[in-house]
Design a protein that fits this description.
Elements lengths: L10 E3 L4 E4 L2 H13 L21 H15 L5 E10 L2 E11 L1 H4 L1 E8 L8 H16 L4 E7 L3 H9 L3 E10 L2 E11 H7 L5 E3 L1 H7 L3
Parallel strand pairs: 5-6
Antiparallel strand pairs: 1-2, 1-9, 2-3, 3-4, 4-5, 6-8, 7-8
Helix pairs in contact: 1-2
Length: 213
C-alpha cells in the first residue's frame, strides 16, 4: 500500500536486496532486532550519542523516536531518508541517506546497520551501492561521504570496495571514550566509472519534489 508521503514510497532494488522507505509497519518489524541488540558489549561501531548502545526498552523507544523526528524534518538545509533493508521480503537492517544543504552543495552522507546473522554475505556493499545509486542517479548528488572508526574494518572495507577516496581523520567519542574516525569521499565522476546497470529506482521523482529538488 502506497503512502501519501512520497519519501516512504521510494524503493531501490538490486539483485540481492531492496531498500524500502521505512514505514511504521517496517519499523515495527525491525523492533525485535533492535530489542535483541545489533552490537554486543565488546563492539563500538557508532559514535555518541547512539540509541543502539542503550539498554532495552529505552533502546527501542529512542530508536523509534529518532526516526520519527528525522522523518518529520524535511527542509532544504537538512533531510534524512530512512530505508529498511529487505532480503527475501524480510527487513534485516537500515540504510539512511542524509543531505545537508543538498540543494546548494549536492553532498550526501550515509549511515547503516545490519542484523548480525546477515553480516558476512556481501550485503553491506550491496546496500551501500544501492543508496549511492539513489544519491547520484536519482537525486543528482555531486559527492557522497562516509566515515567509520579506524578499527571498523567492515565499514571501511565497504568504502574502499566502492571506490571511495580517503578524506582525513577526526576524533570523536564512542561510549564516552575517544576514538578516531576515518573519513571517505566518493565523487560523482568516480562513481560513474563503476556505476551498475542492474539497480532499479522507484518513486524517486515524487520524492524529489518533496525534498524541494
Amino acid at each position: 500500500m502506497s503512502s501519501a508521503y512520497p519519501p516512504l514510497n521510494v524503493e531501490v532494488r538490486t539483485p540481492k536486496l531492496a531498500l524500502s522507505g521505512a514505514t511504521d509497519d517496517l519499523l515495527e518489524r525491525l523492533v525485535p532486532v533492535i530489542r535483541d541488540g545489533i552490537v554486543d558489549p565488546k563492539q563500538t561501531p557508532f559514535d555518541d550519542p547512539m540509541s543502539l548502545y542503550q539498554d532495552s526498552p529505552q533502546r527501542e523507544w529512542s530508536w523509534l523516536r529518532g526516526i520519527w523526528t528525522g522523518r518529520g524534518r524535511v527542509e532544504p538545509e537538512w533531510w534524512r531518508l530512512y530505508f529498511a533493508v529487505m532480503v527475501d521480503g524480510q527487513p534485516v537492517g537500515m540504510q539512511d541517506l542524509i543531505g545537508i544543504n543538498f540543494a546548494a552543495l549536492g553532498t550526501v552522507s550515509t549511515f547503516s546497520w545490519l542484523e548480525s546473522s546477515y553480516r558476512g554475505r556481501g550485503l553491506g556493499i550491496e546496500m551501500r551501492a544501492a543508496i549511492l545509486h539513489l544519491a547520484f542517479a536519482g537525486l543528482g548528488a555531486r559527492e557522497a561521504a562516509s566515515e567509520a572508526f579506524s578499527d571498523n574494518s567492515a565499514s571501511n572495507g565497504v568504502s574502499q570496495a566502492l571506490g571511495y577516496e580517503p578524506n582525513g581523520t577526526i576524533w570523536t567519542t564512542r561510549r564516552g571514550e575517544p576514538g578516531q574516525l576515518t573519513r571517505w569521499k566518493l565523487t560523482s565522476e568516480r562513481w560513474a566509472r563503476i556505476r551498475r546497470d542492474d539497480i532499479q529506482l522507484i518513486g524517486v521523482e515524487a520524492c524529489r519534489s518533496a525534498l524541494g529538488l
